[in-house]
Structure formats: C-alpha cells, structure tokens
Amino acid sequence: MSGAAGTGSAREDEPALLQIRQWSFPWLIHGFGTRQSERWTHRQGRTWVHQIHSNMVHRAAEPGYVADGDALVTDLPGLLLEIRTADCMPVLLVDPVRRAVGIAHAGWRGTVAGIAARTVQQMVDEFGCQITNIQAAFGPSIGPCCFEVGPEVAAQFAPSAVVQPGPHRLAAAPGRVTVDLLQANKTQLFDAGLARESIFQASSCTMCHPEQFHSYRRDRDQSGRLVSGIGMLA
Ligand SMILES: [Zn+2]
Predict the structure, then answer these.
(1) CA of 70 to the centre of ligand 1 (A)
(2) Distance 197 CA to ligand 1 centre (A)
(3) Nearest-angstrom CA–CA distance, 112 and 128
(4) What's the rounded mean pLDDT across residues 127-143?
C-alpha cells in the first residue's frame, strides 16, 4: 500500500471520522471515531491496551494487545494505536520530525494522574523526540456543560479546570460543580512544553450529541465506545 493511497482510502471509507486538517501528512493515519465509524481501526496493525484508568504508558513493538494501561507510543510504521472512550478524553500525539506517534485515554483519573504529559515524556525518552516538535489533538469527550462532579473529585483539579455554577450556565446540583477535561489536558501539555499552535482539537460534548457520540454518563450500560487511533503507514 502506498502512503498516499492508504490515507485516502481511510477518509473515503470513513467519512464520519473526525480528523485534524493540519495533519495531512501522507504517512500518517489518524482519527477520532464517531457512532458511524466504530470499526475503522479493524485493519492490519491494530494495537491496543486493556484500559484501566491508570497513567501507565507502554511502547508498542508489534500489533495486537500490548498490556494493561492507558497510553501507547511507537516509532514503528505499520501499527495503528487504538483507544476506546465514551466521555473520557482521547488524546493523539505525533512528532512529524522524528516520526513517532502516541495515544492516550484521559478520563478524570488519568487526567489528574497526568497521562497526556506522561505520554509526551515517553516519546521524548524512548525516541528522542523534541518536545517542541510534538503536536497533540484532543477528541470528543464529556464537556464542562455536562461533566458534573462532587467536591472530592473537583479538588483534584487545578482551579482553572473547575467550572463553578453561575448565571452563564445551568446550575449544577447543590454542592456540585463541573470539570473541563479539555482545559485540564491542554494546560498539562502547555506546561509540558508543547507550543500553543501545536495543540489541536476536534472536540465537542459526547453527552450533548447522542446522534454522533456514545456517552457512558448518558447511556450507562447501553453505551458503546468511540474508537480513536493513530499510526504511520508501512
Ligand atoms: Zn454537554
């Protein structure tokens, strides 16, 4: 498969996949899945972890199941790293200079545990990536409109990621506030040294858009999973 043909076919096969326009590198395949693109990673090279809401990052050396954990990095073409979410934040990472990629599953526990920054650091440590060359993209997750938490969870976030009830939004239940996972993860990557113009988003609230996204908070045990992936064409 040539690089250009591979990327093109992914887009034609999966029109519902959310992609970052600036990431049109001919050797890169990436996307955030919607309800309409649940099987797009089912191809040669699919590589995954058993997600456990941790901050464990693994280096993938071959396709298939890697380990328990919540993030993967690789510099090998031919692997398609996959994460499955329903409200948690999917994070894609690419270093177009060193040609390495990463993916992370950042729910509130993973976010608090710094999984996005740890994945960036793993790319630096394993592949010699320069932080300033790494680009990040955030996908659909539960938004600050809907992600209501109790004070014990809110206390673990920086104040800038906690949205207090006010006249500009519906009041949360008494004693509860909402958390902005996108803001928390963006701040984490700025603090890690990524350039502001290297951080992209294809994000909207999973809970607010039932036609497009699965949401565990909304659908509970009936919820499916959104499939995000990134890899380099062999
Ligand atoms: Zn919402």
Answers:
(1) 24
(2) 26
(3) 26
(4) 98
